[in-house]
Amino acid sequence: MIALDEDDLICDFAEYYGIYDLYALDVEYAATLASGLRDNSRIKLKAQGLRVELNTLLLARIADAAALNVYAKTKDAQHNRNKPKSVLEALTKDDKEELRHFTSGAAFEEEWRRLNGNRTC
Questions:
Q1: Are 36 and 61 part of one and the same domain?
Q2: Which pLDDT value is given to residue 115?
Q3: How far apart are CA 57 and CA 108, in angstroms?
Q4: How many structural domains comprise the chain?
Q5: Chain-centre distance of CA 115, in angstroms?
Q6: Is residue 116 in some structural domain?
Q7: Which burial class, exposed, middle or buried, applies to 13 when counting CB atoms under 10 A from its CB (0-12, 13-18, 19+)?
Q8: Are 40 and 58 part of one and the same domain?
Q9: Rounded-to-integer distance, Cα 107 and Cα 100, Å
Q10: Which pLDDT score, from 0 to 100, does residue 97 have?
Q11: How far is CA 103 from CA 14, 53, 59, 110, 121, in A?
Q12: Judgement on whether residues 58 and 28 belong to the same structural domain of the protein
C-alpha cells in the first residue's frame, strides 16, 4: 500500500487510528492496521481504481436514470437536444484537460488572444 500511495496511507492512518508516524510502527502491526482500514479509505479506493465510494457511484447511476426518465417525456428528447449531463460520468471521467498543439508561435498567440479577450501574451 505504501508503494501505491504513501501520502494516502499516512492520511488514512492519521484519520482512522490517530497514528501520525507510520514508520514508528512494527511492519507486521502496520500491515494489520492497513488491512483493517475501511473500504472507503483513500488507499483502498485507490487500490480499487475508484475516485469515489461505490455507494456514491450507485446513487449517481440512479440519479442519471431518473433524469433520463424525466427527459424522455420532454419535447427536447423528441428532437434529441438538451440531454441531461451524466452525474456518473462527471464522477468517473479523467480530469486531465485535452492537450492542444500549435503549428507555430503565431497560432498560439492567436488562440491566446481569443481566450483572453484579445489581450496579448
A1: no
A2: 83
A3: 39
A4: 2
A5: 26
A6: no
A7: buried
A8: no
A9: 11
A10: 60
A11: 49, 42, 44, 12, 17
A12: no
Asked, for residue 115, whether it belongs to a domain, the answer is no
Provide mean pLDDT across the span 52-77.
94
Q: Residue 121: is its pLDDT beyond 60?
A: no
Tell me which residue range forms the domain holding 79.
54-92
Same domain, 21 and 37: yes
pTM of structure: 0.60
Say if CB 55 and CB 62 are below 8 A apart: no
- For the stretch 92-104, pLDDT in tens is 887 666 667 788 8
Distance CA 105, CA 75 (A): 46
The helix (run of H) or strand (run of E) holding residue 72 is none
Q: In this predicted model, what pLDDT tens digit does every residue of 14-58 receive, in sequence order? A: 999 999 999 999 999 999 999 999 999 999 999 998 889 989 999
Please give the Cα distance from 2 to 31 (Å, whole number): 10
**Nearest to 32, CA basis, from 47, 17, 14, 53:** 17
